[in-house]
Amino acid sequence: MSDSVQKKRLSIILTGGTIVMVDDIDKKTGQPVRRPPANPREFAGVLPQLFKKYAISVENLMNQDSTDMQPVDWQKIANAVRKQQNFDPAGIVVVHGVDTICFSASAVSYALGKDLQVPVVFTGAQVPYTKEYGDALINLIRSAEVATTDFSPAEVMILFNNKAFRATRAQKRDDKDFDALSSPTHPPLILVKDPLEQANVLTRRQPNENEKRKIEITSDSGQEFLDGIIPIILSPGNLPRFYFDLLEGKGCTAIVLLSFGGTTIPTGATDGREKRTSYDYLELIKKAKSKNVPVIIGSHYATKVTEKIYDSTQEAEDAGAISISGYVLPALIAKLSMVLAKTRAITDVDIRLDVIKEAMGRSYVGEIDFNIGTYFFKKNIDEDIVDIVKEIREKRTACSERKTDDAHS
């Protein structure tokens, strides 16, 4: 058997970022520019050792600065992963800019869910590959190794430096450090050592050859994610009335209140003195509910799932808010974007809020610890939402029938 046949197949999807940019001259302006490799041969010139070790296919999907990555781009990347995995590679590497890599990788993890067949490793770099001391080339080499290793999980991961994190547990921690990411609520899935070391945590094993199947590719016209989520970082003096006007248009699809810790919010309460209503966020929650705009209460600190022990949490839920904990922000935003898209056709406001609350409380791809063993890669979000709606409607019908029977007895 020839060397080329023995090589493991590796798919690389280029989406932009500085990691593999090629220095060139713009033909129109004559100015120096950086662009992605035009073809596999040019990419091979960046990192020839990868092409010697693997049978590589390169998809130049887009050249997008990661600060301009939007939900529509998440969907394009997810579809590219679907397409590439149908070619049966050993693994897939997605090259991405650092700033929003955690958002995109989380979104792809939710989009594919249990349909993911191979390891997918997102990676980027703090400096271009042209800086020999930098992290670009080593991150690519290590990502390829993790993506094609037999014991790597069939999950979406993000590799920086010597750690491969579960995508839905990672967040950016530094603009310059080569340890650009952290995973405050979960250990890395794989540590790059000699040999690679797998964490002793629940992961999703790769399917064997008999279990693999072709995955239907969702059309780009099909909307998997919804725009319009507005995160609000709560701070002393931040008045809720600032945000009332956001609810008057059609652009706002959800509000995420990032609290000081846990799921508590300001309600204008004082130590026995007159309530300071101008600081009361309960009014914003009620107004949002009247506009069918869900309000999620989380924390801008990534913490484990916390108990709801404060009065303001219960008051907020009574007003219509959904309190959640255990998420890093990129995973929260990406998941909420998908859940909003999958529930936008539900016209009953109370049912929609109940569905969103239930879905956000389930751990589909290991994004939170709560219920992780119950739902972990067992159902995709879209199909589970159908079941959740059915369960809620059945409960409401049964409750209504009991009330009718009680009235007649």
What order do the helices and strands come in, and which of them pair?
Blueprint: H1 3-6, E1 8-14, E2 22-25, E3 32-35, H2 40-46, H3 48-53, E4 54-60, H4 71-85, E5 91-95, H5 101-112, E6 120-123, H6 136-148, E7 156-160, E8 163-166, E9 171-172, E10 181-182, E11 190-191, E12 197-198, E13 229-233, E14 254-259, H7 282-290, E15 295-299, H8 311-319, E16 322-323, H9 329-343, H10 349-360, H11 372-375, H12 381-408
How would you describe this protein?
This protein is of the alpha/beta class. The chain folds into two domains: 3-198, 3-Layer(aba) Sandwich (Rossmann fold), CATH 3.40.50; 229-399, Rossmann fold (3-Layer(aba) Sandwich), CATH 3.40.50.40. 33% of the residues lie in helices and 16% in strands. It has twelve helices and 16 strands. The protein has helices at 3-6, 40-46, 48-53, 71-85, 101-112, 136-148, 282-290, 311-319, 329-343, 349-360, 372-375, 381-408, and strands spanning 8-14, 22-25, 32-35, 54-60, 91-95, 120-123, 156-160, 163-166, 171-172, 181-182, 190-191, 197-198, 229-233, 254-259, 295-299, 322-323. The strands form four sheets. It has an eight-stranded mixed beta sheet, sandwiched between helices. A four-stranded parallel beta sheet has the order 13-14-15-16, sandwiched between helices. A two-stranded antiparallel sheet has the order 2-3. α5 links the parallel β5 (91-95) and β6. α9 runs antiparallel to α10. It is globular and about 80 Å long. The mean pLDDT is 88.
